[in-house]
Amino acid sequence: MSKPFSVPVKPDWPAFVRTILRQGTPERVHHIELFLDPEVQTAVCERFDLEEGLDRADPFFAEKRQIRIQRFLGYDYVRAAISGLDFTFVWNQTPDTADLARGGGRNYLDEHRGPITSWEEYEAFPWPDPSSINTTTLEWYERNLPDDMCLVISGGFAHFAEYLNWLMGYETLCYALYDARDLVREISNRLVDLYRTVLEVALQFKRVGVVWGSDDMGHKTGTLISPDDLREFVLPGHKLIAEMAHAAGHPYILHACGNLNEIMPDLIEDVRIDGKHSYEDTIEDVIELKTGYGQQIALLGGIDVDFLCRADEAAIHERVRRTLDVCQPGGGYCLGTGNSVANYIPLDAYLAMVDEGRRY
To answer: Which domain holds residue 118?
Structure first.
């Protein structure tokens, strides 16, 4: 097994949580990612023999493999979700041209129309049944996750803006905000009720350390729907999730792509998120944000995905150092990509980012 990292790292999930809560400069850099694409995880396992000794026939092979990957890369947590709440969407497909190509191609949601464009389709839609919630994975992690790691509850919930968009189709949603606001409100309320139940179940597990919502709300220059519509149909759901997380003693962090400048005061002061994830150089730089709302919430990630795709390793090391010089003092920063470790980011570029964080 070759070793890409010059500095060993031992997980320390309480320190990770303190960093998110801005409780002083941490002793080392803590890393965070929304996820690593499956192809990236496989490439890491193959290059560094991480599956050695694991039995693929083991019913918990995936969970054991995930722990190995996260520990090897230096993360303090395993990201876990409740399963059994599958939605039906309208997908389009195209071939995947990434170096670590996805066998079945890439799927894209149809922006014109989704499965719910009318009250009739709403009534006929196969809504997930909360009684079908499956906690098998969480139960296994509760018993077997190493003590120095925590669970980050993420994936499969808190998609208030995204699922409005995906269930109706972006074009249909925009029309419905004028022509059928009662239908938009009904879908929004249904999502809130569902995710309340999901989080109530998830918070029963003692190994949970962080709650992480994921809900893209914007594009390069603004929000996908008006800030007022987000305040009416989306932000109340996130406020509820944040209140539930805080009542259980956990921070609530939010992944949300796009230019959200018009609603950041709402997210910080009303929703009361503890950290914001997803940054793109064409919108904003976490270095500049450290003296702005980085004084109120944690800044998470921010090493731009396009930069990682194009830059050489020397430039990556330099940018990571420059970012940490500004963002590390006082806490409130975790190192990671601006979005996620997509399968089109060169693997060595991602590993260079991680390595520089471990050295810092």
So the answer is: 13-359
Q: From CA 51, how far away is CA 60, in angstroms rounded?
A: 13
Q: Where are the alpha helices (DSSP H) in 75-115?
A: none
What single-letter DSSP state applies at residue 266?
I
269 contacts: CB under 8 Å, gap ≥ 6? none
Q: What is the CATH number for 46?
A: 3.20.20.210
Does position 2 have pLDDT exceeding 70, yes or no?
Answer: no
Domain annotation covers residue 258: yes
Mean pLDDT across the chain: 96
Per-residue tokens: 162: 């995204």
Residue 4 pLDDT class (50, 70, 90 cuts): confident
Strands 91-94 and 106-109: antiparallel
* pTM, rounded to two decimals: 0.96
What pLDDT sits at residue 323?
98
Contact 332, 289 (CB under 8 A): no
Q: Is residue 35 part of a domain?
A: yes
Residues near 19 by beta carbon (within 8 Å), at least 6 away in sequence: 26, 30, 298, 331, 332, 333, 334
In a domain, 301, yes or no: yes
CB 304 within 8 A of CB 279: yes
What is the domain count for the chain? Answer: 1
**What confidence tier does 37 reach under pLDDT thresholds 50, 70, 90?**
very high
- For residue 212, the 8-state DSSP code is E
Q: Edge-to-edge, what's the strand order for the sheet holding 150-154?
A: 77-80, 150-154, 208-214, 252-255, 275-277, 298-300, 333-334
What token pair was written down for 139?
Answer: 């139960």
pLDDT in tens, 222-267: 999 999 999 999 999 999 999 999 999 999 999 999 999 999 999 9
DSSP structure class, residue 220: S
> Would you place residue 328 in the very low, low, confident or very high pLDDT band (cuts 50, 70, 90)?
very high
User: Do residues 336 and 278 touch, judged by C-beta distance below 8 A?
Assistant: no
Burial of 19 (0-12, 13-18, 19+ CB in 10 A): buried
- pLDDT tens, position by position, 201-230: 999 999 999 999 999 999 999 999 999 999
pLDDT for residue 157 is more than 90: no
